[in-house]
Amino acid sequence: MKHFKTSILASAMCLAASSLCHTASAQIHLTADLQNNHLWRGMEVADGCLILTDLSYTFGAGHATLGLWSGTNTQGDYKEFNHYVTLRGAGFEFCAMDTYNFSPGATYNNRQYFNYKAHQTGRFLNCTLNYRFQQPRFPLLLSWSTIMFGRDRSVDNKEQKYSTFVYAEYPVYKKDGWQVDAGVGGAFALNKAGEKQNFYGETSGVVHTQLKVSYDLKIGSYTVPVHAMGMWNPQSEKAYFQIGAQLIHL
Fold first, then answer.
1. Could you report the per-residue pLDDT of 172-193, keeping only the tens digit for each?
2. pTM for the structure as a whole
3. Integer Cα distance of 96 and 178 in angstroms
4. Of 237, 231, 249, whose CA–CA distance to 39 is shortest?
5. What are the distances in angstroms from CA 96 to CA 7, 70, 72, 193?
6. Using alpha carbons only, what angle is made at residue 246 by residues 241 and 250, rounded to the nearest 5 degrees?
């Protein structure tokens, strides 16, 4: 565990040092989205009126980003605060996101923000590698994501399960500011630890299918990206509908 935290710290220091060499291209960005729920990999994380915010610092000619992501709803029963680092180039994008959900009523440890002990922590480190094909006629997105650390444990809390989510998405329509994306994702555990369940479902299989429609809404001189999405989870036999708009994009 000591080596794990040391490597994360070393990576952050290297990225910070790199930024000093690229100050001319460095940029700070802030976005805020308003949605009726927060959907993630076949699950409804929270419902109600939500604000999702992202504060990021991009440097290295756009190839690296350090960011803070948060979400909350008006009821006060959902609160999330994440840190992440993203590296990108040649169609590839790697993101490591340290996720901490401190919503009231959580069944895991949601009191000790800085607790990084594997068998005690309420956070998890999710690492994702994406690749978008560069051919204009075949812009397929492929994604592999594994929870490398945290509250993705066996029932006896002795082993890390390394639950993995694989996903494919394709833009089936794009014209006049409209875009329609269709996606499907499945989940399994790299270390089953003698159990069937993983972080995303009761067993391995397809847990996420979606159809998302996006549009760039023009309001005077402003452009407000809006979207509507249907998400279905064949394993849990649940379905959700989401509508949202990006109110701030700086």
1. 999 999 999 999 999 999 999 9
2. 0.88
3. 30
4. 231
5. 13, 15, 21, 24
6. 160
